[in-house]
Write a structure and sequence with these properties.
By secondary structure, the protein is α+β, with helices and mostly antiparallel strands. The protein has five helices and twelve strands.
Amino acid sequence: MKRIALLFIATYACISSATGLKSLEEFVKTVKTGKADFSQVVTAPAKDGMAPRVKTSTGQFEFARPNHFRFTYTKPFEQTIVADGQTLWLYDVDLNQVTARQQASVLGSTPAALIASAANVQALKADFVLTDAPDQDGLQWVTATPKAKDGQLQTVRIGFKAAADAPGSTLQVLEILDNFGQRSVLTFKQFQTNPVLPSSAFTFKPPAGADVIKP
């Protein structure tokens, strides 16, 4: 009984010592590739006494650390965002329009850097102040506040769920609050850790006839 009690105390201590920041550090360190379905709910602030506007979209997300990721939005409108290591591509299917930006100049203080682009936590700390947040909804949370004051982000919260059958934690939720009061919540489902992803997942060629804009 004494041995069982000691094992229980040790196990409880390990569980209670888990924090959002430690989960983020472990995630960045050990998860080099990932793939998941996602839903995104964007809530705009209320104006002139009207109810907040809410938009929902769904799609798939893939990444290969560092600096490669793809968001494929499928509903309600088709849109693709690809970071190939050099260029950040945004393709709007309905408009048949492609926007191409130099990746290094736009990704440093973005949510994508937090979950997919950064090579390590030290790289994140160069652009964000990272702090633990209280556990909520069964998740461990960390808050990231951009150090740059001239960006569009106010705060980002990242929620991790401890894996029941494996070490480490699984990315579950990304909450983004921008400086205009708009809140975006991405919820990830069926997250695959370290899958083998083809290099073609992170290449993009503008479709024939598409209008290509390079700001």
